[in-house]
Write a structure and sequence with these properties.
about 300 residues; alpha+beta; Transferase(Phosphotransferase), domain 1; three-stranded antiparallel sheet; two-stranded antiparallel ribbon; 9 helices; about 30% helix; globular; nucleotide-binding; Prot_kinase_dom; kinase; serine/threonine-protein kinase
């Protein structure tokens, strides 16, 4: 259990996306580990679906757009969640999605496939059960895979939704609709917010962009300037960076201008950062932070 928690902490520290639950701080004692995270006031998507019984297609589209954006962000940063389900999709006070529970998340490597079968069986694709080599059961699993592409789509769905679902459920992975290709589908496009219409920024680029207004505010309340920018560039969690990100999230929220905000577009911040040899380096929008590499897991 401790390994699962520490894996989740290490991975969550890297993420900064409007639809991924934010980890602000970790407090560790001799007996407990406390994770201070973003508050998802409206609870699990699972409970919301049970309550509503059926979501209107426009509302389902909005949630689906947010989920795809968060998942694409994870994949762009070479992370795979491996346990996506309604119970791990939380909702904030405005019923926006927050992807949570990264305990089973793993790092991908280009050209290599992950081999561990994990996640929740009730949500697993049927073909995953072929990994079980129990004698006498192989023919059952083979039959499941054979008929994996046989299903019924509810008749109340629009033609566009039916087509999208059919493309996602294609058994052959070479023909199946991909995460990057999903936003191009006609059903996905209506009412797409501007901040979701562009490819998500990776964590290294985000670490190099600092909001000048909020940074100056944090410095004015007593945090040392150079130490704060070094901590932000290296994604180090301390009191100063927690204050910075809380203020940033409170100002930005989730709006149509999210990716147009200063978090993703540094406005001329220029700081002197001491190098190991005693000289100084300048950090600015044109010369990204020289300490902008995040720590490896």
């Amino acid at each position: 259990m401790e390994e699962k928690v520490r894996r989740e902490i290490n991975i969550s520290r890297l993420f900064m996306h409007p639809h991924i639950i934010r980890l602000y701080e970790v407090i560790e004692t001799t007996t407990d580990i406390f994770m201070v995270t973003e508050y998802a006031e409206s609870g699990e998507l699972f409970d919301y679906i049970v309550l509503k019984r059926r979501l209107h297609e426009d509302e389902a589209r909005k949630l689906f757009q947010q989920i795809i954006s968060g998942v694409e962000y994870c994949h762009k940063n070479m992370m795979v969640h491996r346990d996506l389900k309604p119970e791990n999709l939380l909702l904030d006070s405005n019923y926006n999605v927050k992807i949570a529970d990264f305990g089973l998340t793993n790092v991908m490597q280009k050209g290599h496939l992950l081999k561990t079968c994990c996640g929740s069986p009730n949500y697993a694709a049927q073909r995953f059960f072929l990994a079980n080599h129990t004698p006498g059961l192989k023919w059952i699993y083979a039959a499941v895979v054979l008929f994996a592409g046989v299903y019924t789509i509810p008749s109340h769905l629009s033609p566009g939704a039916r087509d999208l679902i059919a493309r996602i459920l294609i058994v052959d992975p070479t023909k199946r609709l991909t995460i990057p290709g999903t936003p191009q589908h006609p059903w996905f496009q209506p009412y797409l917010p501007r901040y979701l219409a562009v490819s998500p920024t990776d964590t290294t680029q985000q670490a190099q962009n600092i909001d000048d207004d909020i940074f100056q505010h944090v410095v004015r309340v007593g945090f040392e300037r150079n130490h704060l920018v070094e901590s932000l560039c290296n994604r180090v969690q301390n009191e100063g960076t927690v204050v910075y990100h809380l203020l940033l999230d409170n100002r930005l929220g989730v709006s149509s201008d999210y990716l147009g905000g200063a978090e993703f577009q540094c406005r001329g911040l220029c700081l002197s950062i001491p190098n190991h040899d005693g000289s100084t380096s300048q950090s600015s929008a044109s010369n990204p932070c020289p300490l902008g590499e995040y720590k490896e897991l």
